[in-house]
Structures are given as C-alpha cells and as structure tokens.
Amino acid sequence: MSKLKKHLILLVLFTASTCVTCASSIAGTTEMGIQQSFHISHEVAILGISLYVFGLGCGPLLLGPLSEFYGRNIVYQVSYLIFFVFQFPIAFANSAAGVSGAAFLSVAGGSVTDIYDDASVANPMAVYTLGPFLGPVLGPGYAGVSQNYAVRNNGHAPPEARLLIGMTGAVIAPIITAYRPYAASAMAGNSFMRSSFAAVFPLFAGAMYNRLGTVGATALLAGLTTLMVPLP
Length: 232
Prior knowledge:
Layout: H1 3-26, H2 31-38, H3 42-70, H4 72-85, H5 94-101, H6 103-115, H7 122-154, H8 159-171, H9 174-178, H10 183-228
C-alpha cells in the first residue's frame, strides 16, 4: 500500500472520529431551549448527551471484537450508516447513534496499526488520537457560530433550529503497541471507561459546582485526574 493511500485512510479515520465526538458536545447549546420547551429539569435535558456518550463507551465493546473477526471495513460501513440514519430521529435515538458511531473510537485504532508497521505507527496514531479529543472542543464553537448566524438572519433561534445545528455537525499508544493483534478490543476497554465517566459527569456537575464552588469543584476534578494518570 502506498504512503498516499495510508495517509488518506488516516485522514478519513481522523475526520470521522472528530465528527462522532463533535456530536457529543454540539448539542449542549440546546439545553436551555429544551428545558423551556418541554418544561423539564436540567438533568433530564442533559440526558440525551449523557446517553450518547454512554453509547460511545458501550459500542466499542461489541464493535471492536466484531472488527477483528469480520474485518474493519464492514464494521465501518454498517455502523456509520446506522449513525447517519439515527441523526434524523435524533430526539429519541441518541444512545443508538452513539453505539454505532463508536466504531471510529476503537476500530479505527486497530486500522491504524494494520496499515503502519511498528517503526512508523507512533506519529499516525498520534494524529488519529487528536480526533476524539478535538471533536468535543469544536462542537460548542461551531454551534455558537451557527446560532449567532441564525439570530442575525432570522431574529431568533428556537430550540428546533438548535437541534438542526446539532444534526448538521454530527453528520459532517502504549496500549496499541502491547495489544497490537487485538488493538480494537484493547481500545474498546479504554473507551468504555473514559466514556462512562463522561456520560455520568454532566448529570451531577451542576450540583457539584453549586455545592463546592468553582475553586473547590475544579480542585476536586484536578485531584481525581492526577490519581488516574497511571491508568491506561
């Protein structure tokens, strides 16, 4: 396989993982609108994001092993098709979309190790790894710009318009070295732990900051992060 083809595959994996994780944060701007429209609490309004992120954690536990038995491509094709379809009934399909989109958070790591040898895998893996962490950062920024554009042109931005923004944004390595033959499954375990914490956190974050204050709550999170540094 030529270097150009390898780099193109890496670009697709990077872009897809960025889109999948971007969808986990882009809907955050809809929270207030959802609360007002449906007269629900903050915890219920944020539940859609939590279920989506939990799906990102659970999906790799199934998709990772499947990709090692049946091949990466068929898992990509089926899961991303399901991910795309579930963006339309997004009001009640967040968890299912997360499960299917999770292929690009675990299986993709296995693909990178498949096409690059031990001597050259480090840099491509670093590039791919940026995607899952870059997506949640880009999501709120894209949503804010789109929402401001809607306000300037329409004079208002109802909750339904914000949900459309979320749909648009969603569509748009030591572990790997150690478990190279089963890289996708190894990354599935890592993704499950990370996404489980991320899914639960929004449900109590507001109450925690109200109780402990900005300094106390942030210091607590910093301490927990430090304690988890040794974990893979």
